[in-house]
Design goal:
Structural class: mainly alpha
Order of helices and strands: HHHH
Number of helices: 4
Helix content: 55-70%
Organism: Streptomyces mirabilis
Protein name: Transposase
Keywords: Coiled coil
InterPro entries: Homeodomain-like_sf, RD_transcriptional_regulator, Transposase_8
Shape: elongated
Strand content: under 5%
């Protein structure tokens, strides 16, 4: 059985939040907090894994609306690209 951690859950959570919000590397944050960088890195990975949605999770209403908007925008951009390709081909013909 592993010995109890010398770091409280509150300290771990705060350290992870600092690491995620900071523009510094995990190693730099760990050094400032007087932690082993691999310890902090494992806490960050564990936190990120817990935050990931389940692969089979349904989309929320907001996510569905955002997806629909992005799909609409994607279709619009594809039409623009098609038009611009045709225009470029037309103007590439040099009638001189």
């Amino acid at each position: 059985m592993a010995p109890p951690s010398k770091y409280s859950p509150e300290f771990r959570e705060e350290a992870v939040q600092i690491a995620l919000r900071s523009s510094k590397t995990i190693s730099e944050v760990a050094r400032e907090l007087e932690l082993n960088s691999e310890t902090l890195r494992s806490w960050v990975k564990k936190y990120q894994k817990q935050q990931e949605p389940a692969p089979d999770a349904e989309l929320t209403v907001n996510e569905r609306a955002r997806l629909k908007e992005l799909e609409r925008r994607n279709r619009e951009l594809e039409m623009e690209v098609t038009f611009l390709k045709k225009a470029a081909a037309y103007f590439a013909k040099d009638p001189r």
